[in-house]
Amino acid sequence: MISLKTIGSNSEKQSLLVFPLDIAAHYLRCLGLCKKLSAQFDISFAYSPKYDRFVKKYGFSTFEVCNFNSEEIKVSASSFDFSWLNLRTIKSILESQIAVIAELNPSLVLGDTAFTLKMAAEKTGVPYVSILNGYMTKYCCIARKVSPSHPGYPYSKTMPKKVFNRLSRAIEHSMLKKIHEPFRRVRKELGLSRLFYLLDELEGDFNLICDLPDFFPQKNLPENYEFVGPLFYQGDEEEQEVLDFLENDHLHILVSTGSTGNWKNLNLLCDPVFSDSRIVISGNASNGIRADNVLSNNFLNHMKIMAKVDIVICHGGNGTVYQALSNGIPLLFFSGNFEQEWNIQRIIELGLGTRLEESFDAFKIREIIDTWIRKRESDSFRQVQQQIQLFAEKPLMLNMH
Fold first, then answer.
1. 398 within a domain of the structure (yes/no)
2. Same domain, yes or no, for 244 and 227?
3. Which of 8, 26, 179, 353 is deepest in the core (most CB within 10 A)?
């Protein structure tokens, strides 16, 4: 049995292997969690050439293991294509994980959207801890919103809400069961326990929900689930160039496209209506525009500059959302995939931000920015800040018994 302890220490370190999906958000939040666990465990991460420098900064070692192709996932997610979760790829990654776990013999393994790790842990008899978003559990009370890019989205405008939600849940469950079919085949071949759909496969022996409870309430949550609160990157990069760029007499806008997002209307920020602004662009689309009042970088340590930021425009990724809200900053969204849509749905419902439609022109976007900046001092933002801070200050230990 695994549970959380928030006091005490462990004089004898155990071994922990970490298997994040090979995407920045997953690696960086695993690092945030493992920083809290480093007094208890000797920690080693699945090697990624893209994120190795961050792992090394935290002082963790690495090991070689197969992982899913992150670029294929990013492209496929926007079109609801799950062909990358195929039998051949699943078997290849699973075999690699089983081999490395058998060789390194850890006390437990930690996964973040590590689709095959539950099977590898079961096969090797090692306890498995899974990091989950609140919207990715079987116990989430909130109907997951259908993305505007999904073929079924137009029906949400014509059908009664309750009927549409019931229908979309049934279709979603059927889809997740279909996607899980190759996993069921592998489980049968290896003599592993029977599971029935994809959310079962993401569930660990113990599960850490990296959201605020109010954002994604859970119903009948089992004892092997715990909220650990938001996990996001807090590095040591000083970002002095950006801080110097953000002069006090300007409107300061941070645009984060992340590793998976891409805002088609990025060039609207060159419009004269933003001439009084200083705009920082962070992420994979950072080279999209050039202007005297724009500074771009493929990666920025957001937490070092948030104190100077007035508004955040982003794709709805978990890390950027909580980085902004931990500083009481409103959010404006362009969504990149269906998971980000679920974050956006809740932020809008909780009155902490809104969506930027593709039809909006520069004047409309500026109007929305000015409106939301005036809401920064509201009770809603202060309360969320306090909740995030409480989780951030809470020490964490995994108690194995």
1. no
2. no
3. 353
Asked if residue 294 and residue 266 are part of one domain, the reply reads yes
Model confidence at 7, in pLDDT bands (50, 70, 90)? Answer: very low
Q: Are residue 30 and residue 136 in the same domain, yes or no?
A: yes
Read off the pLDDT of residues 11-31 as tens digits, 9 standing for 90 and up: 578 999 999 999 999 999 999
> Between the CA atoms of 256, 258, 261 and 267, what dihedral angle is there, to the nearest 10 degrees?
40
CA 314, 318, 321, 324 dihedral sign is: negative
For residues 215 and 179, state if they share a domain.
Answer: yes
Q: Which range among 175-179, 182-186, 261-265 has the greatest average pLDDT?
A: 182-186
CA gap 282, 254 in Å, rounded? 7
Same domain, 295 and 265: yes
Strands (E), 7-103: 14-20, 41-46, 61-63
H or E element at residue 208:
strand 206-209
Chain mean pLDDT for the chain: 89
* Complete edge-to-edge strand list for the sheet that includes strand 311-314: 294-297, 277-283, 251-258, 311-314, 331-333, 353-355
Domain containing 376: what range?
240-389
Q: Is residue 269's pLDDT more than 80?
A: yes
What distance in Å separates the CA atoms of residue 147 and residue 339, rounded to the nearest whole number? 9
What is the pTM for the complete model shown? 0.91
DSSP string, 288-319: S---TTEEEES---HHHHGGG-SEEEE---HH
- For residues 132 and 209, the answer to whether their CB atoms sit within 8 Å is yes
User: How far apart, in Å, are the Cα atoms of 171 and each of 167, 203, 390?
Assistant: 6, 21, 38
Nearest CA-CA partner of 40 in 5, 88, 71 = 5
Rounded alpha-carbon distances, angstroms, from residue 216 to 13, 167, 311? 34, 20, 24
Q: In the chain, pLDDT over 70 holds for what percent of residues?
A: 90
Under the banding of pLDDT at 50, 70 and 90, the label for residue 281 is: very high
The CATH number covering residue 332 comes to: 3.40.50.2000
Q: pLDDT digit string (tens) for 376-396?
A: 989 999 999 999 999 999 888
Longest dimension (CA), the chain: 65
The two three-digit tokens of residue 266, written as one number: 């990025």
**What is the reported pLDDT for 282?**
92
The tokens describing 90, both together, are 């699943």
